[in-house]
Amino acid sequence: MKPAERRTAGVGGTASTRPVPISSAATARSYVRSLVSEHWRAPSGPASERAVTDLLLVVSELVTNAIRHGRGLAGFEVALLTEGVRLSVHDYSDDVPSAAYGPGTLPHLHEGSGYGWPLIIRLTREIHIERRREGGKTVSVLVPLM
Q: What's the start-to-end Cα distance of the chain, in Å?
């Protein structure tokens, strides 16, 4: 599996593109944490540690889903917005997870999986899933930091 490219956009949508290898959830989390700590500021100040922890959980779930269920990570984008962070994760699978549009309820029994999408639903404000022209899909979410 080749590492995914990451592209970033500054607060207010000012875009800058830097190819950087993202090949694991740990790499993605580290990158997102550094972006938020160095560049994201709301009028009320920096993001709380709780908000950053929620953001990093969503990063982990989305990247892990792309690797495990999406036939690999095809790309990873982070946009810093006034209200939070937009994450876009590209994979190679055309399959849209039905749980992404569910109510976000946690499973009754834990059998090694089933918590990812409910957590994403609970911690994000928007979820968009679009098929990519070249095959696969993009999952985009907005994680509030305020």
A: 36
